[in-house]
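Priority: medium. Attachment 1 of 2:
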């Protein structure tokens, strides 16, 4: 990979991660007024529609689109329906800052799955050591809440488990996108998969949730609009990067270490009911250190 291409990959990856790190605050705001599956469904259907003008002029033929329908639906299943169904449900159980830190372990999960699913993306002893450090960080986060002390604590522990499952679903979605080598525009692929994933979440909400009994306030729509925009932008950037020659899934996901750090900071700054404490910060630093260690050697080698 050339220096210029490496630089643009880094800058785009950081941009996407900074956008994603703002999601935790927006999700917490929206969940005050709507069920998790309805809110997620509205967000991702709107995201898909926002991208329509960017790919419609160069849209693929109907035969090309239908020829890849199975792959598109599989990506929608893992990358949107399962990932964000689990994510939104988990966010109803734990604070936004804690959720940001748990989701920050997703690069480690991605790297393990990439080892088994992607040729040339193998684990090494250094990567194995970083996995243990990252899992230790997740354990610190979980135990720092003292879940055995109350029913709320047990719900938070369950929420951490749900978010770890969301990490698995997201990792599988990343691998599917990276392995999908068809000549489909990444923006088109993201728009269609994110819309159908959101449609599935909305249909699920009709069966499991009750509609709001009153008019929703402006801050719900502000959160919805921002989340829809960031999903459209961040996922399109990520899909473009995953399709670049020479980009490895595990190495690209290194930059997601920014998400738990910035996501926790945004939650502490913008959500009045949340504030930092020692052990969550220690867990966050363990996860960030593990992710940096995981890819440090590989990233240096590719930049030299």
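Attachment 2 of 2:
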């Amino acid at each position: 990979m050339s220096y210029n291409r490496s630089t643009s990959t880094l800058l785009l990856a950081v941009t996407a991660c900074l956008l994603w790190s703002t999601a935790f605050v927006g999700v917490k705001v929206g969940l005050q007024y709507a069920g998790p599956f309805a809110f997620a469904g509205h967000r991702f259907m709107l995201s898909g529609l926002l991208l329509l003008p960017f790919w419609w002029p160069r849209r693929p033929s109907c035969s090309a689109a239908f020829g890849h329908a199975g792959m598109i639906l599989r990506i929608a299943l893992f990358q949107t329906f399962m990932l964000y169904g689990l994510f939104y449900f988990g966010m109803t159980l734990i604070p936004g800052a804690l959720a940001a830190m748990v989701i920050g372990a997703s690069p480690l999960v991605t790297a393990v799955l990439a080892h088994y699913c992607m040729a040339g993306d193998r684990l090494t002893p250094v990567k194995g050591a970083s996995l243990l450090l990252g899992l230790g960080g997740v354990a610190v986060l979980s135990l720092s809440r003292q879940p055995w002390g109350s029913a709320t604590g047990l719900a938070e522990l369950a929420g951490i488990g749900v978010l770890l499952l969301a990490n698995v679903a997201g990792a599988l979605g990343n691998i599917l996108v990276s392995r999908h080598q068809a000549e489909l525009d990444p923006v088109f692929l993201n728009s269609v998969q994110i819309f159908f994933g959101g449609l599935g979440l909305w249909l699920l909400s009709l069966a499991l949730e009750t509609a709001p009994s009153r008019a929703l306030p402006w801050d719900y729509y502000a959160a919805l609009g921002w989340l829809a925009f960031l999903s459209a932008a961040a996922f399109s950037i990520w899909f473009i990067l995953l399709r670049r020659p020479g980009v490895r899934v595990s190495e690209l996901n290194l930059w997601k270490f920014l998400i738990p750090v910035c996501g926790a900071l945004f939650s502490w700054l913008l959500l009045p009911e949340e504030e930092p404490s020692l052990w969550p910060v220690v867990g966050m630093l363990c996860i960030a250190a593990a992710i940096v260690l995981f890819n440090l050697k590989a990233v240096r080698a590719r930049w030299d």
